Amino acid sequence: MANIRYPAVAGSFYPADPHQLQDMLSGFLGAVAPVAESAPKALIVPHAGYIYSGPIAASVYARLAPARATIRRVVLVGPSHRVPFQGLAASPAEKFASPLGSVPVDQEGIRALLDLPYFGYLEEAHRLEHSLEVHLPFLQSLIEDFSLIPIVVGDATPEQVATVLECLWGGPETLIVISSDLSHYHDYATAQRMDSATSDAILALRPEDIGYQDACGRIPVGGLLLAARKQGLHGECVDLRNSGDTAGSRDRVVGYGGYVFR
After folding, report:
1. Is the dihedral of CA 23, 27, 33, 38 positive or negative?
2. Domain range spanning residue 63?
3. Residue 192 phi/psi, 5° resolution?
4. Buried b (16+ CB within 10 A) or exposed e, 216-252
5. How far is it, in rounded angstroms, from Cα 163 to Cα 259?
6. 205 pLDDT exceeds 90?
7. Average pLDDT, stretch 6-20?
8. Ramachandran area for residue 152 (φ above 0: left; ψ -120 to 50: alpha; else beta)
9. Distance, CA of 126 to chain centre
10. pLDDT tens digits along 168-200
11. Sheet containing 4-5: order of strands
């Protein structure tokens, strides 16, 4: 029997029923106006429950339409919320499953990174982690056929993340997705100020200007920004909102930003 990483937050962060899930995704994506642009190389996408961050995620993922049949591998990197560990953790699973089906894991690509001293397998880091899982249904809805390299980031540096990304960079067949929310649990006006400054730092490719409280995925984001500098990419903010704009109170909000890099 294949070693499968099964969903941990289906039924809480997003619907567990595949028909309800597909309907929700179609609604989010259908609300995004078509944009005539070339496909991005990398994305920064939020990872909260769909009622909160789904519209922002859809704004980003809709930009993949031109590469629906081109992308064959997705490097998906997000922060660890539950398990403390050093470095970057791959999954030994052969497949990652969602209510929409399963995606094969590119274990050959992972094995090519195992000589890095800060990179290795840690199944525990993946078992209950939502920062990667919530992206899978969007990707399954938008890309025809792809494999996955799922990486959870623990106590690491942006430089370490950048090295891993550069090893996996590839060509147009490889998409990089960085999972991160922005500020957490400030009032609406404070969050807007903080998230605007973080957004400016992302677009300026300046990870050094993103502080601990500015983004829960600041290390994965920082790694992408360093790699983007080296690879000559530029970023675009396609959506910047918070939970007070989508489905929550404005007393304590979580910020969400959506970015594409070309």
Report:
1. negative
2. 4-261
3. -60, -40
4. bbbbbbbbbbbbbeeeebebebbbbbbbbbbebeeee
5. 21
6. yes
7. 98
8. beta
9. 14
10. 999 999 999 999 999 999 999 999 999 999 999
11. 4-5, 95-98, 101-104
Written as six digits, the tokens of 30 are 């259908």
Q: How far apart are CA 181 and CA 260, in angstroms?
A: 15
Query: What's phi and psi for 210, nearest 5 deg?
Result: -105, 110
Residue with tokens 């056929």: 145
Strand partners, 172: none
Strand positions, DSSP E, the chain? 4-5, 42-45, 73-79, 88-90, 95-98, 101-104, 119-121, 147-153, 174-179, 184-186, 235-242, 253-261
Distance CA 164, CA 217 (A): 16
Give the pLDDT band (50/70/90) at residue 35.
confident
Measured at the CA of 255, the angle between CA 157 and CA 101, to 5 degrees, comes to 80
Using 50, 70 and 90 to split pLDDT, how confident is the model at 1? very low
Residue 52 one-letter amino acid: Y
Asked if 88 and 62 touch (Cβ cutoff 8 Å), the reply is no
CB 238 within 8 A of CB 183: no
What is the DSSP track for 96-109? EEETTEEEEB-HHH
Total length of the chain: 262
In whole angstroms, what is the distance from residue 258 CA to residue 126 CA?
A: 23
Range 80-90 average pLDDT: 97
pTM: 0.98
Confidence grade of residue 258 (pLDDT, cut at 50, 70, 90): very high
Which residue bears the tokens 């106590």?
Answer: 155
Q: How many domains is the chain built from?
A: 1
Helix (H, G, I), strand (E, B) or coil at 259: strand
Instruction: Specify the CATH number for the domain of residue 82.
Output: 3.40.830.10
